[in-house]
Amino acid sequence: MDFILSKKSFFLFLLTIGLSQTIFSYEAGRGYLRGFVIDSLSGEPISYATVVVKGTNKGSTTDGRGYFLVAGIPVGNREVIVSCVGYNTRNLNVFIKENEITQLEILLVPASIRLQELSIVGERYDRENAADLGLEKITPREMDMMPVGIENDIFKYLQTTTGVRSTGDVTSKYYVRGGGGDQNLVLLNGATVYSPFHALGIFSVVDPEMISIMEFNKGGFAPIFGGRLSSVLNIITKDGNKNEYHGSANASFLSGKLAVEGPIPNGSFIVTGRKSWYSKMLKKYLNSKEAPVSFYDFSFKANYTNPSIDKNSKFVIHGFMSEDALENENPLKEDYSIKNIVGGLNWHKVWSSPLFSVVNLSYSGFEAELFPNYSQSKPRYNKVIDISNDWDFTYMYPGGDEIAFGVQNKYLNTKLEVINLYGQKSGYNADRFDLSFYFTYKFYRYENIGLDIGIRSKLFALSKLRPFLFEPRINFTYKPNPTIAFKAAIGRYSQEIVTLSDENELISIFEPWVIIPDNISASEATHLQGGIKIYLSETFTMEMEGYYKYITNLIDINTAKYSAAQSDFRNVNGKSYGVEYLAEFQSDDFYTKLSYSLGWAFKIINEKELFPRYDSRHSLNIIAAYNIGYGWKVNSSWTFSTGMPFTPIAGFYDRLDISDPWDFYSIFGNYKSVTYWGERNSKRLPVYHRLDFGVTNKFKLFNADVSLGANIINVYNQKNIFYFNRDTGEKVYMLTFFPSLTLKVDL
Asked: Which domains are seen in the chain, by residue range?
């Protein structure tokens, strides 16, 4: 009862603050400035542009849609400075009226290619009191700082950030601060992507050519996000060129891709497509004599604004699909098929008051199937249908405080079908409705203090055992002076849809999504984190963060099951903690980033702490890039990490196999060898380290812009162990020395 009252008290506290601020929101002698910052050549919105009112402490940064809003500006003639890395700074004279909103559309002219080459942060405006612990904003320019290897990839870049780990060279799958791979939410223009990787995880299904910006939350994320325990990756794609038609073609050893963009009446569009090559290079890249992977992905986006009807409304339609086929030449091996299809409609609205809203309607489908052929595997099938509708609102008060609130509802259906050893078809089907609301109050009225306090609550949850879930979240920043900021966050998170995978499987391709069974509680996590950021100069920053995460009711496969009457799943607990360090330096021609993570992750099973397979004690990443001039750029990256844990084999024993009753009385007997495992993840692989190098040249060829790149993966040919072959005991290595070429032509 006390807990329920505490929930009500917390909600009423936030509601009282919001209502009181609405009643007393008038502030004499002050006004608003809002609008959009646009690329003058392409018409694309510019993300993370700085808008500063000279002579005041008022300013803002544009969001992923190029939108900004500055409140509490003293009335009168004001000089507004608008800047962004890669663009010429623009100064505007604007008259601010009392308690009124002045709206602008600001065009910035791109600077020369040389100035754009390496600068990343530049004059980016960081709100003095922004409560944004755990948030990293990423643009395509950041990703260009890394050697591309085979292809530029968003998840390969994420693996170089603090707190993020992968389990191999080839895979793009990632694990954040000791959380599982299914605990990461990936959003594409507001729609959930359930399988964001191509088969075997070689790289993401989202083409980097399509991306405008990404926001990566490693923990402590805002109440607007829910449904996952560890992290959120929010991807917003480009709108497309509004002024003229453009096309580009890319080719690498693994795939080829095309992109087309251009204007349409009152809007623009962009379309990209990518298809893999089936070649010997693909087999070498995957370190396999049999690499039957073929894939494609296709993305599009179109936006429309009619100034004669409502210049402050923008409609966006977007879509995405991908398919992976793993078809083995050997009939004794399984084939796989994995498909994604995502579509959505967004309505962005700037109201007459300082209110901004986004309405999102989306569909996300995922389908995976295993075809056994003549192998010993059995057929498996998994399907997910996700239909979501979100209403999100943001309102800013004259003093600078903000409220964000919204309602999100979802219909979710999961289907899992398997064939057991006796040839009987069984499955688990579930469909649920989820209705959530959230509210956040952001205290930004003081220059050096920021506080986000909010809740997310589920009125109808997917879990029948926990139909009501309450998730309070707080994020705090204190900046005593311009060179240092202290930050902290605490929050509660839940997850009710998970993937089923066995950690003993070294390479898991079929990982089905399912809504948690009715007899199992939803997984819940508490995040506690704190950090410090130091601005040593305009070009050199340092950050350090510490975190602790405790998870209850993790879904785990019941490996101790010995009776058909027992459940296939069990609830276990987990925890992770660690510290992270980041240093970043940049000048006009040189950029480097060093990230180091020290962390521990545990699953608590029967009161015993065991390491999950993705636990890694130490992880160090160093990236460096240098602009030589005349279109030449070189970059390199070096990675070092502790070896991943694995479960050793303790022995084998024979077991009677009755999967084929007709062969039961065979003269040769009907026994098969069964592995007897040692203690779970009690051993570790040797340390991992690798150096990559790349060089790129950009030049003009006739009327085309050409980019030619040469890259080397694993320059000094380090033999990093991927796993030990369970049949032979031989070492299976990750990527060895691997050179590659990339070519891009823009028309």
From this structure: 2-116 (2.60.40.1120), 135-233 (2.170.130.10), 648-681 (no CATH)
